[in-house]
Write a structure and sequence with these properties.
With about 90 residues, the chain is mainly α. The chain has one domain (about 5-90). The chain has helices at about 10-25, 30-35, 50-55, 65-70, 85-90, and strands at about 60-65, 80. It is globular, with a radius of gyration of 15 Å.
Length: about 90
Protein backbone atom coordinates (compact mmCIF):
# COMPACT_ATOMS: atom_id res chain seq x y z
CA UNK A 1 0.00 0.00 0.00
CA UNK A 2 2.96 2.30 -0.52
CA UNK A 3 1.96 5.70 -1.87
CA UNK A 4 4.52 5.40 -4.68
CA UNK A 5 2.20 2.86 -6.34
CA UNK A 6 -0.74 5.29 -6.43
CA UNK A 7 0.39 6.51 -9.84
CA UNK A 8 -0.21 3.03 -11.28
CA UNK A 9 -3.50 1.94 -9.69
CA UNK A 10 -5.81 3.09 -6.93
CA UNK A 11 -5.52 1.53 -3.49
CA UNK A 12 -8.84 -0.27 -4.01
CA UNK A 13 -7.65 -1.90 -7.23
CA UNK A 14 -4.36 -2.93 -5.61
CA UNK A 15 -6.19 -4.43 -2.61
CA UNK A 16 -8.46 -6.42 -4.94
CA UNK A 17 -5.42 -7.69 -6.83
CA UNK A 18 -3.69 -8.80 -3.62
CA UNK A 19 -6.88 -10.58 -2.52
CA UNK A 20 -6.99 -12.43 -5.84
CA UNK A 21 -3.34 -13.45 -5.57
CA UNK A 22 -3.83 -14.67 -2.00
CA UNK A 23 -6.80 -16.76 -3.10
CA UNK A 24 -4.77 -18.62 -5.73
CA UNK A 25 -1.22 -18.48 -4.36
CA UNK A 26 0.72 -21.52 -3.27
CA UNK A 27 3.53 -21.03 -0.77
CA UNK A 28 6.73 -22.88 -1.64
CA UNK A 29 9.39 -23.11 1.08
CA UNK A 30 12.98 -22.35 0.18
CA UNK A 31 15.78 -23.06 2.64
CA UNK A 32 18.91 -20.95 2.99
CA UNK A 33 20.87 -24.00 1.87
CA UNK A 34 18.89 -23.92 -1.38
CA UNK A 35 19.95 -20.30 -1.90
CA UNK A 36 23.58 -21.14 -1.21
CA UNK A 37 23.64 -23.76 -3.96
CA UNK A 38 22.17 -21.60 -6.73
CA UNK A 39 24.41 -21.93 -9.79
CA UNK A 40 25.14 -19.70 -11.53
CA UNK A 41 24.43 -17.21 -8.73
CA UNK A 42 23.04 -13.73 -9.13
CA UNK A 43 25.49 -10.83 -8.89
CA UNK A 44 23.32 -9.60 -5.98
CA UNK A 45 23.39 -12.45 -3.44
CA UNK A 46 20.08 -11.27 -1.95
CA UNK A 47 18.38 -12.22 -5.23
CA UNK A 48 19.51 -15.85 -5.08
CA UNK A 49 16.37 -16.54 -3.05
CA UNK A 50 14.28 -15.89 -6.15
CA UNK A 51 16.39 -18.23 -8.26
CA UNK A 52 16.12 -20.93 -5.58
CA UNK A 53 12.35 -20.41 -5.52
CA UNK A 54 12.25 -20.67 -9.32
CA UNK A 55 13.88 -24.11 -9.03
CA UNK A 56 11.78 -25.25 -6.07
CA UNK A 57 8.48 -24.55 -7.78
CA UNK A 58 9.68 -25.51 -11.26
CA UNK A 59 8.64 -22.11 -12.64
CA UNK A 60 8.32 -21.63 -16.38
CA UNK A 61 9.24 -17.94 -16.19
CA UNK A 62 10.54 -15.43 -13.62
CA UNK A 63 8.94 -11.99 -13.78
CA UNK A 64 11.04 -9.18 -12.34
CA UNK A 65 12.06 -5.59 -12.88
CA UNK A 66 15.33 -6.15 -10.99
CA UNK A 67 18.31 -5.53 -13.27
CA UNK A 68 20.45 -8.04 -11.36
CA UNK A 69 17.99 -10.79 -12.26
CA UNK A 70 17.13 -9.59 -15.77
CA UNK A 71 20.78 -9.71 -16.81
CA UNK A 72 20.71 -13.49 -16.22
CA UNK A 73 18.01 -14.05 -18.89
CA UNK A 74 17.62 -16.89 -19.62
CA UNK A 75 18.74 -18.61 -16.44
CA UNK A 76 18.99 -22.38 -16.78
CA UNK A 77 16.76 -22.09 -19.84
CA UNK A 78 14.05 -20.26 -17.84
CA UNK A 79 13.16 -16.83 -19.19
CA UNK A 80 13.57 -13.86 -16.85
CA UNK A 81 11.39 -11.04 -18.16
CA UNK A 82 9.98 -7.69 -17.13
CA UNK A 83 6.30 -7.44 -16.17
CA UNK A 84 5.58 -5.67 -19.46
CA UNK A 85 7.32 -8.37 -21.48
CA UNK A 86 5.46 -11.05 -19.53
CA UNK A 87 2.08 -9.49 -20.31
CA UNK A 88 3.11 -9.27 -23.97
CA UNK A 89 3.63 -13.05 -24.04
CA UNK A 90 -0.13 -13.61 -24.07
Amino acid sequence: MRPKFDRYQTADVREAFVALVRKHAVLVPVAMTDEATVTPPCRDPKDNQFLALLLACEAEVLVSSDADLLVLHPWREVPIVTPGDFLGMF
